[in-house]
Amino acid sequence: MKQSFSRRNFVQSGALIAAAYAAAGAVPSFAEPSQVSGKPSPIHLGLASYTFRNFTHSQMIGFMKQLNLSALNAKDVKDHLPADPQEEAKALQDYAAAGIELHAAGAIYFAKDDEAEIRGKFEYCKRAGISVIVAGDPTPETLPRIEKFAKEYDIRIAIHNHGPEDKLFPSPLDVLKAVKNMDPRIGCCIDVGHTVRAGTDVAQAIHEAGQRLFNIHIKDLTSFQSKESQVAVGEGIMPVRGIFEALIASRYKGFVDLEYEIHADDPMPGVISSFAYMRGVLAGMGFTTHG
Asked: What is the DSSP letter of 229?
């Protein structure tokens, strides 16, 4: 059974790499992306742990090793990054032993304007060495207090847009309007799927965000009007190369984290395909990839 799974994904990944080369306007070779000559990729690929929400952090570490990934955007789901300090410390110890680095945490929600509660969330991220908090729908009332703690802890806040259903921040452009006069540590996380569903061009949003763009959640859709149309990256109509080009042009230094929200009980086939495609696009653009 394991051999069948591996071969199926090898064939699928190879096809997607070839498709990605074609999308990037390059002539594919039979080399793996890591063997393509060129400069190191300025695009850093990571994983949003919500992808493996039905699996323990130990299982996720095994999956990340298979994916050759070391960058994690962790969420308090299952036991990925527990709120309890002792359980959190255990997870962090396991990540460190596996060579996995946490660059962000979230989405973390700030619905209540409560000093102790908000400080607790910053302390949670400080313990984990997190430099970016992906914030889900902070209210206008909580933003000033969040800004205060962002300064105190020197942790950046990336407000996550959630598409047409989001009454506060459907688009990254709505985030930018809300934070334009705030501390530069307050910015946005662009979720590309929710962004296109809000009718916003992702590349335009990237350029407008500029230095206030701290995180990217990447996914693919077969329809820009349907949240339920998510597929593996490369199987839909998301302009992946254009997104990468916009990030490079804006000198984005953060991570592009795959957030694969479908097939929760068996995500690996789609996750493998997604990374194969993205690495293929980058290789077709002349870059080597290591994550």
From this structure: G
In the structure, what pLDDT confidence band is assigned to residue 18 with cuts at 50, 70 and 90?
A: very low
CA dihedral 97→99→103→106, nearest 10 degrees, is: -60
Tokens at residue 157, please?
A: 């806040």
Of 248, 251, 252, nearest to 281 by C-alpha is: 248
- Name 231's bridge partners: 220
Query: Given pLDDT bands bounded at 50, 70 and 90, which one contains residue 290?
Result: low
Angle at 205 (CA atoms; ends 151, 278), nearest 5 degrees: 100
Amino acid at 100: I
pLDDT digits (tens, 9 = 90+) for 120-158: 999 999 999 999 999 998 998 999 999 999 999 999 999
Peptide bond into 89 cis (omega under 30): no
Picking from 213, 203, 142, the residue whose alpha carbon sits closest to that of residue 175 is 213
Nearest partner of 258 among 213, 192, 208, 196, judged by Cα: 192
Torsion of CA 50, 243, 283, 62, to 10 degrees: 0
